[in-house]
């Protein structure tokens, strides 16, 4: 989990590194991006890494249990297990902080307009290829 959080932080810096090569970026914009990166790093430092690793291990165990229950035909019990773990995750302070940091990271990234699911693409009433037909 620590590697995942570090990777997330590094991925947020990639656009910043690319922007430094752009001739149109001002010194003020660059300073603002660097300040945002520092804020995100401070945010991530509030996350208890060992607790996140434990939660990751527990998630793998719960996933295996759910899969086993499903294979045994115990669908209701599998759903109850998933819901209970979901509530536990929703109530976990470290998960809440990590989500907060993740939102901060998303604000730093460029806004891409690509759909993230077929349902989202269908809701847009157009196909991705329609944009290239002109």
Describe, in short, the structure shown:
Helix 2 packs antiparallel against helix 5.
Alpha-beta content class: mainly alpha
Choose one word for the global shape.
Answer: flat
Sheet with most strands: none
N/C terminus separation: 45 Å
Oligomer: single chain
The radius of gyration over CA amounts to 20 Å
Instruction: Supply the number of helical segments.
Output: 6
Residues in helices, as a percent range: over 70%
The total tally of domains equals: 1
Average of the residue pLDDT scores: 77
> SSE string, helix = H, strand = E?
HHHHHH
Approximately what portion of the residues adopt beta-strand conformation?
Answer: under 5%
Tally of extended strands?
0
| Residue windows where pLDDT falls under 50 for at least 5 positions | 16-22
Provide the descriptors you would attach to this structure in a database record.
134 residues, mainly alpha
Account of the 3D structure:
- It is a single chain.
- With 134 residues, the chain is mainly alpha-helical.
- The protein has one domain.
- Helix content is 75%, strand content 0%.
- The chain has 6 helices and no strands.
- Helix 3 runs antiparallel to helix 4.
- The termini are far apart.
- About 5% of the residues have low confidence.
Question: Helices, strands, pairings?
Answer:
Blueprint lengths: L1 H19 L6 H19 L3 H23 L3 H17 L1 H16 L9 H6 L11
Helix pairs in contact: 1-2, 1-5, 2-5, 3-4
